[in-house]
Automatic annotation (TrEMBL):
Residues 98-178 form the Ysc84 actin-binding domain. Pfam families: Ysc84 (PF04366). Residues 1-19 form the signal peptide. This is Twin-arginine translocation pathway signal. PROSITE patterns: PROKAR_LIPOPROTEIN. It comes from Fertoeibacter niger. Keywords: Signal. InterPro entries: Ysc84_actin-binding (IPR007461). The lineage of its organism: Bacteria, Pseudomonadati, Pseudomonadota, Alphaproteobacteria, Rhodobacterales.
């Protein structure tokens, strides 16, 4: 029974921490998301110049400017962003992540998904929800400046996580889902 109580308290604590991080969910809709995406894109390009070329090669880029994550045993994350094709917003998406395992803390970060093939972008847009899976290559910010042609020719989707603040530690199993939204 003690384990169940810990999991319950961990879930409640994670929810409270997530709510306290100021994600801005329910804000001014599309204008807020677009402004955040512009700022995130500009930061990404100025900080990691290789990502600008990566963006030009991509068929589309999903920018998630602010994802808030918290966990204590059970955790979760949520954020909203925009899919851009030729740097024009075509759809808005939310990302939801659930985790379970040994973890404690809270953090905020941004990430971008670069769709390097027309098929990968089409699969993403046609689906009612899309879960990141084995066909996604995750890159670190240090790689963001040097993601080259060899990488982009063999990877259908490249995910770059950057701009982390806060601290979360642990080892977890996680699932991520992206869902089209109307802000």
């Amino acid at each position: 029974m003690t384990v169940n109580r810990r999991i319950l308290l961990g879930g409640i604590g994670a929810s409270l921490a997530l709510a306290a991080c100021g994600n801005g969910v329910g804000g001014n809709g599309a204008q807020t998301i677009d402004a955040r995406v512009d700022t995130t894109r500009d930061f990404l390009f100025s900080r990691y110049p290789g990502t600008q070329e990566l963006s030009r090669q991509a068929f589309g880029v999903l920018y998630m400017p602010l994802v808030t994550e918290a966990g204590f045993g059970i955790g979760g994350a949520y954020g909203r962003g925009a899919l851009r094709i030729n740097d024009v917003t075509v759809d808005y998406y939310s990302t939801t992540r659930a985790t379970i395992g040994f973890q404690i803390g809270a953090q905020q970060y941004a990430h971008a998904l670069f769709f390097m093939t027309e098929g990968a972008l089409g699969d993403f847009r046609r689906g009612s929800g899309w879960a990141a899976g084995a066909d996604v290559r995750y890159a670190t910010p240090e790689q963001g400046a040097s993601l080259g042609k060899e990488t982009t020719e063999i990877e259908p989707v490249i995910a770059l996580v950057f701009g982390q603040s806060g601290l979360i530690a642990g080892a977890t199993l996680a699932g991520v889902k992206y869902t089209r939204i109307i802000p």
